[in-house]
Batch of 3 targets.
Target 1
Amino acid sequence: MMMFMLYLLPLFMLMSGVMVYVSNRAHLLATLLSLEFIVLSLFLCLFEALNFLNYETFFSMMFLTFSVCEGALGLSILVSMIRTHGNDYFQTFSILQC
């Protein structure tokens, strides 16, 4: 019963992160934050699964490294958008401007 509860929390976190990602599409920063929340919940699922199966946690460190790189790329895109357009609203962009 306890193992079921341990897997229920990351799944709830994952579903709530996906719901926020789908519902909030106005700002790039809010989208990036919801994506980071999804990545952290996936890391929690991965870490619990690796601990349950008695595997090494080296893969979880690789996962964290790639998620940090993904976050840095997202923040660099956010900074470049704010420098060129002045804000991070998706409604102010046009496909013809790109």
Note: DSSP finds three helices and no strands in the chain.
Target 2
Amino acid sequence: MFVRTYGKPYMQNSEVFENLFAELKRYYTGGNVNLEEMLNDFWTRLLERMFTLLNSQYVITEDYLECISKYMDQLKPFGDVPKKLKAQVTRAFIAARTFVQGLSVGREVAQRVSKVNSTPSCMRALTKLLYCPLCQAMPALKPCRNYCLNVMKGCLANQADLDLEWNQYIDAMLLVAQRLEGPFNIESVMDPIDVKISEAIMNMQDNSGEVSYRVFQGCGQPKPSGMRRSTRGVPDVFNARFRPYSPEERPTTAAGTSLDRLRTIWNDMQHSVVDIKEKLKGSRKFWSRLPEDLCAGERSSLGNLTEEECWNGHTRGRYFPEVQRDGLTGQVNNPEVSVDITRPDTVIRQQIMALRVMTNKLRNAYNGNDIYFQDSSDEGSGSGSGSGCTDVCPTETDSPSSEAPVVEAGRSGPVEDSARLLVPSLTLLLSALALQRHLR
């Protein structure tokens, strides 16, 4: 559109516009870019180029251009377009980038938690839960529901402590998603950006005489070049009037087709946000619900059973102990799994902190505040959650293995050997797959 509207003057100065879009892309993909400073610099560079073109009968030096830039706020050569565009672009890009970063952190947390090793006590309890009925010639007997819940709550005690921060993180993600659906979504800002920049150029053209007069007052009269404007290609100055054009007239250059692809991506993104919002809502209380999910339905083959017709850990009959509360501190009296409540899992604690940091960033993004995402190498904590992405967040190379994690067994024997094969398939992989289903 700029080529058609402004022709040669645009093509001779196109790097000013190309740099703008390159910096916007670098910001979105995780680069350390100050959006406000970058946008201010764009308008300053545009003012300098246009002033030089519109005053080609003078010698405009670098020092003179630097003086012009100091009067940018007073001159307002582009009207109120820069102010409005800055508000829209910063809000839209902050929300979009933070939302993508938030999804990355959620994925990283789930992956790291799925690799947490189970304790020997948990492995013995799981083996007793699932395999001991076989030894008593009751292969069809399934565990009592409350018995299953106590085992799972004991095995997943540390994971349940994620729930509070996880729920706050989900709520913050949903808030930012509202921004992406509202007036600050990427497509509604970027689609007409060419028109808005062109309007700004027209404003300066219409006020070029007054702008030049005020610049001459503040910076002094520049030296004449010895050439009249007409001899320097006045027709090539920014003198074309902007006219809207239909989609059929869109340029077929590499830049034009690239912009069309971006429009397609942003349009798809709008539909994805709606879909992701529903999945995010469904993942609230995921970690505290996990024992219930594993002890009900066909997924774990632990369906609803009568109180007298289930495996209670010893024989066929009723299970009497009470179901324990969620979380590490709630397992002090767990009758099935011995849990050391004084030693929280360090990996889980790191992920709680990662969620807390990301939640704070999401809330800032919702309020339009810019955020700097550190690379994982700069975090220092070793968790790496919340690190910046590049163009596309890469798939983790250290994804959860289907093999059993190495566990230091307190003693060797058939129970521990069987449990090593059992634990990953039941607690770790089921939990990872269940969450992956929500976040995919």
Note: The mean pLDDT is 76.
Target 3
Amino acid sequence: MQLLEKHQGKIALTTDMWTSKQKKGYMVITSHFIDDSWILQSQIIRFMYVPCPHTTEVLSEALMECLLDWNIDGKISTITVDNCTTNDLMIKNTLENLSSNSLLLGGDLFHMRCCAHILALIVKQGLEGIKGEIELIRNSVSYWKATPKRVEKFEEAARQLNIACTNKLVLDCETRWNSTYMMLNIVIKYQRVFTRLKQREPQYKYFPGEEDWSLAREMCDKLKIFYNFTEKFSGVKYPTTNLFFPSICEIRLSLNEWSKSKFDVIRKMASGMIEKFQEYWMVINGMMAVAIMLDPRFKMKLIQFYFPQIYGPSFADFEMTRVSNLCYDLAKEYELKVFADKSIGQSDFSSTSRSEMYGLDDDVDPLDKFDMFVSNSTQTSTVKSELTCYLEESLLPRANDFDILAWWKTNGIKYPVLQCMARDILAIPVSIVASESAFSTGGELKSERGTFWEDNEEDHDEIINMEEDG
């Protein structure tokens, strides 16, 4: 609590509901901020029981109570939540109880959506209509995993073909799309083993044809992109906001390529995923674009590279202008704050020192208005030029070991306003879940022995509705 109280910048929050086996609800609230040493901190500040019914009003009251208890209601930058309607209304209610003056751009950037959950929903949409296309492979895996004797036969056939059995067969789970990727990724390595077993086992009647194997390899390649990106930005030890934007742009361009695949099923999958992607693209690309602008390896150049490919020449200029205006508006807001803080400090010092040095009894400094004039003129000329000068400088080389926090820590003298801005923006997480849970569209459950990710729920909405029903 003392650490958060001394923190001068903004604090980003993530919150989620956990449900026990007894259908009791618990709210977890985690704070994310960059401390004075420029180290990203993620600290749980509340894990509390929330009595039923879990309505929008009950959840927003619980959230506000936590903010007031910790005295951080005036420091919040964003709140990242799952993509369910209850959370949307909870954020709306919370916004009404916070001062708009303390929020970034009056609260326009307050609501962040969990991008890991968004990707899970996009992939789920794509896999929904093609379940039957890999049914033979799924049945083959199920057959050879059914008994220890069949597993032994499978491993023996692999040894005869000099194929190392380093990975055991896995069967996919409906609510965990990465399990489908892992199933396909492992099974295609054993294609020759399945062919051998077909000759030796009369009861094995689920043998996939060559077209099934080709489709499996194609689907595995497609899902690998989502798998790698999801793992990348599910971390909590490093900034992920600036990493997500190029990843989501690459996904969008990949979907365009998939829609031209020679396989009808891949084209069908791409169509469903593009449709789901478009639902969320506009609500996540604003803050992500600001974060990528603050990455000295990319700045606005990456946006200028991707947007024409995503939007086409007709709409790219409009979208790039919208992002540019957002960056400048945010920089302007930070500049006003930085210069206001400096003016207060200078005013306090100057009035005290002059009265002490010269014995002035009059509390009014005749040059206070001059200080205000200088401050206002600086705000209108220097603040905007700082961002402009930063954007006009050459990009840094794209080194894989680049530490963006260390860079902004050492460049604060040159860009004091942008440094304050980077400290707040780069602390915002793009996901509310740990990497092992990022692939699921189920809900989080709490048991006496620990916590785990429930695989038999379709969406967090269903869990909350179930609790509201008693």
Note: The longest helix spans residues 313-358.
